[in-house]
Design goal:
Blueprint lengths: L12 H8 L9 H7 L6 H5 L7 E2 L7 E5 L6 E3 H11 L7 E4 L5 E7 L3 H10 L16 E2 L14 H12 L17 E3 L14 E8 L2 E8 L2 E2 L4 E2 L2 E8 L3 H16 L10 H8 L1 H12 L20 E4 L5 E6 L5 E2 L1 H14 L3 E4 L5 E7 L3 H5 L3 H4 L6 H4 L1 E3 L14 H14 E2 L6 E4 L13 E10 L2 E10 L11 E8 L3 H13 L2 E2 L3
Parallel strand pairs: 6-7, 7-8, 18-20, 20-21
Antiparallel strand pairs: 1-2, 2-5, 3-16, 4-5, 4-15, 8-9, 9-12, 10-11, 13-14, 14-17, 16-17, 19-24, 21-22, 22-23
Bound molecules: siroheme and iron/sulfur cluster.
């Protein structure tokens, strides 16, 4: 079991919690918890340690837990979707499913007494929720069209799966990496368009050739938090596209685990260690942990604008297509899971993929099947060609389920996009990201227009409002947007956004 290095700094409360009992220890107690019920559980186990199993206590819905899965590269099979739906249907309207900004699924409605069965059912279909919350490595993201995209440089699917298997002991839980100083995000891009937002991950691999061999440049330290936002910086390192990626990821995680600050929780992400040491020393220590000198970075190859993958696109396999469907703010019902599985089986080869824009992609659709697929009733709700504001709308969970939230996000995001679309003609999609609080789960800094929940004063009353970010650029030459307006009341937002869309994004008022 890995331990934090002895330190003179005062440990934060989560470090004390982990010292009292390792997070992963709840794995062996889940049957006991299920039998005693949530009210009788130790609050530390219930509200924090269960997150090591991906089970989240929701203060907003006491007794109804959320389960966050791990879906490497966002790739699912129809039998997995069916298994999730079969389990969730017992909860009726209490069940709902969200596609997350890390191309993952979160399931809601779960009762504690059902968790042992739930975890067994996940494992039976090759899924896991282990280590998906708290001080663990989050879902590892990759291009959602890996293996399909004719322009891709490297198919990252098996590498990402192998990395997840290594860091989680094939989904059973790996105590080497369950006591990091903080959460840790990893992304591996194999395409040309930076589809995974490499720049906002603690560790990202982006494709690059070294002496004719394809491998990855390495980026470190990207993160968002309520007090600081930092894009990843180059480690000036290159590794071949093989097991070296796993070795280097392990080395960086070990360096972070053993040296990262465990004091002020707001200063515990990887970038703070890099700041403290400087990138040269950090690189040196990582190289020692890696056990070999690191090659210098090679020229970057990502030179495409980011795609959203919606609509019909030919695959590199002749005669087959992938079809991206827009799922408004990523929200699904149990019935939707069944329907997506059915479409994948009927028209494709049983595969469904998720994107960091909270959408789905059906893959391997033969040319001849396209017209019938496009006429399926589900596609009237999950459109392959959504209107330009809905198309680019992403939203975090918000106050419906998240107790950090300062505002309701998802329903408001849909309503505002639809009302502005009805009034305006837009020359191109505009990416609007909503996030309910400064934790930035909805990534407002990568959006054309980012909306961050805030409490604002209007007419002497505190009301729900937002701070507005502008100028986020994704894909080639990605950079983060910056706060441009503060304290806009949500009820004034349609007017403010209308003006922004006209002035900056070429929107024109529709003549009725
Ligand atoms: Fe997040 C905490 C939801 C992506 C930064 N995030 C939370 C919690 C767990 C808080 C809580 O316990 O209620 C939220 C759960 C609410 C719920 O019931 O759904 C939550 N985060 C989400 C999701 C579901 C947003 C979404 O609607 O898609 C995303 C799940 C991703 C996944 O599948 O693992 C999600 N969170 C992100 C991202 C975006 C990303 O990874 O690209 C970020 C910013 C990037 C980053 O982390 O550097 C993000 N979440 C945070 C933070 C701030 C971290 C920090 O260093 O301060 C918190 C708060 C914390 O960890 O203390 C947080
Ligand atoms: Fe919750 Fe805030 Fe994250 Fe939204 S940004 S899911 S409100 S923690």
């Amino acid at each position: 079991m890995a331990q934090a290095t002895a330190t003179t700094e005062k440990l934060n409360k989560f470090e004390k919690l982990k010292l009292e009992k390792d997070g992963l220890a709840v794995r062996d107690q889940i049957q006991h918890f299920a039998s005693i019920g949530w009210e009788a559980m130790d609050p530390g186990d219930r509200e924090h340690r269960l997150k090591w199993l991906g089970i989240f206590w929701r203060p907003v819905t006491p007794g109804r837990f959320m389960a966050r899965l791990r879906i490497p590269s966002g790739i699912l099979q129809s039998q997995q979707l069916n298994a999730l739906a079969n389990f969730l249907q017992r909860y009726g309207d209490q069940a709902s499913i969200d596609i997350t900004t890390r191309q993952n699924l979160q399931l809601r409605g779960l009762l504690l007494e059902d968790t042992p069965e739930f975890l067994e059912r996940l494992h039976a279909v090759g899924l896991t929720s282990v280590q998906s919350g708290m001080d663990n490595v989050r879902n590892i993201t990759g291009s959602p069209v890996a293996g399909l995209d004719a322009a891709e440089l490297f198919d990252t699917r098996s590498l990402i799966q192998a990395l997840q298997d290594d860091l989680t002991a094939a989904g059973q839980g790996n105590s080497e990496f369950t006591n990091l100083p903080r959460k840790f995000n990893i992304a591996i891009e194999g395409g040309r368009d930076n589809s995974i937002h490499a720049e906002i991950n603690d560790l990202a691999f982006t494709p690059a050739y070294q002496d004719g061999t394809l491998g990855f440049n390495v980026w470190v330290g990207g993160f968002f938090s309520s007090t600081r936002v930092a894009p990843a910086i180059p480690l000036n390192a290159w590794v071949p596209a093989d097991h070296s990626v796993i070795r280097l990821s392990r080395a960086i995680l070990e360096v972070f685990r053993d040296n990262g600050s465990r004091g002020n929780r707001q200063k515990t992400r990887l970038m703070w260690l890099i700041d403290e040491w400087g990138i040269e020393r950090f690189r040196q220590v990582v190289s020692e942990a890696y056990g070999a000198p690191l090659a210098a970075a090679a020229p970057e190859l990502m030179d495409w604008e980011k795609r959203d993958f919606l609509g019909v696109h030919p695959q590199k396999q002749a005669g087959l297509n992938f079809v991206g469907l827009h799922v408004p703010v990523g929200r699904l019902t149990t019935e939707d899971l069944y329907e997506l599985a059915r479409l994948a089986d009927t028209y494709g080869q049983g595969e469904v993929r998720l994107t960091v824009e909270q959408n789905v992609i059906l893959t391997h659709i033969p040319d001849a099947q396209l017209p019938t697929l496009l006429a399926e009733p589900l596609l009237t709700r999950f459109s392959p060609q959504p209107a330009p504001l809905s198309r680019g709308t992403v939203s975090c969970t918000g106050s419906q389920y998240c107790n950090f939230a300062l505002i309701e996000t998802k329903q408001r995001a849909i309503a505002i996009a639809q009302s502005l679309e009805a009034e305006l003609d837009l020359p191109r999609p505009v990416r609007i990201h909503w996030t309910g609080c400064p934790n930035s789960c909805g990534q407002p800094q990568v959006a054309d227009i980012g909306l961050m929940g805030a409490k604002v004063r209007k007419d002497g009353q505190m009301v729900e409002g937002v701070d507005i970010f502008l100028g986020g650029k994704v894909g080639y030459d990605a950079h983060l947007g910056e706060k441009a307006m503060t304290g806009v009341a949500c009820e004034d937002l349609p007017d403010v956004l209308r003006q922004l869309l006209i002035e900056r994004f070429g929107a024109q008022a529709r003549s009725h």
